[in-house]
């Protein structure tokens, strides 16, 4: 398998990551949506540190990445779009759409299946919500996600260009929709018809389980509306809502070592017990 379908892929992805992170961080300074009780100096080392760990782990276990898997499928004629010889103008957008549906489905599964929730809850245990929350995922979750994504790429025979575009788009929208940024209400109302906005995704980080189990989309908002998981606003309002989960609320849990150990620690309670609002009657 080739190291990369495109020699410049790592440069493109790194440039997009750094550029969007910097732009969102500046936006958060100029127009924050919520005041933060816990500042960047306490949270960012852990959140950005886990990005470094995730990147190293993925590069070791999946040296070619999802784009390399797409290149292999293309060379061997594997997958739906290669078998039917779909033209690029159809295969590229359809691949992006179906990969996004796969990520939505995966996200729902990581909330429903207890062992997967143990991994995913590290993302939800952030005590604030900003651009770095969008890249705060446990390495084991990232490995499982890459394996699932690679399987979908193989099944679809997704073109390498589509996979690269999706990877960059997913990373960019994840940082955007986790931003602690203020958008005019009318802009958000229109924009959330096209892409998941911070105002829409923030609901997903509520401490109330009925709100946490909504708005699963990272990129396209259509899946939540189609499958009945859309929630327009949090019950308490965006300024008063409590973020995170009710365990791991000690600021010491924001350290990288504590974050990496979270899936393997528990206080003996089920997930239902962590929901101080419980499910809607």
From TrEMBL:
| MF terms in GO | glyceryl-ether monooxygenase activity; iron ion binding
According to the UniProt entry, where is the signal peptide?
none
All copies of domain Fatty acid hydroxylase, residue ranges:
94-229
Annotated coiled-coil segments of the chain:
none
One GO BP on record is: lipid biosynthetic process
Q: What do the Gene Ontology cellular component annotations say?
A: endomembrane system; membrane
- According to its record, how does it sit in the membrane? Multi-pass membrane protein
Record localization: Endomembrane system
A Pfam match is: FA_hydroxylase
Instruction: Look up keyword Nucleotidyltransferase and say if it applies.
Output: no
UniProt key word NAD: no
Query: Keyword annotations for this protein?
Result: Lipid metabolism, Membrane, Oxidoreductase, Transmembrane, Transmembrane helix
Residue ranges of the TM segments? 12-30, 51-74
This one is known as Sterol desaturase family protein
Organism equals Limobrevibacterium gyesilva
Q: What is the lineage of its organism?
A: Bacteria, Pseudomonadati, Pseudomonadota, Alphaproteobacteria, Acetobacterales
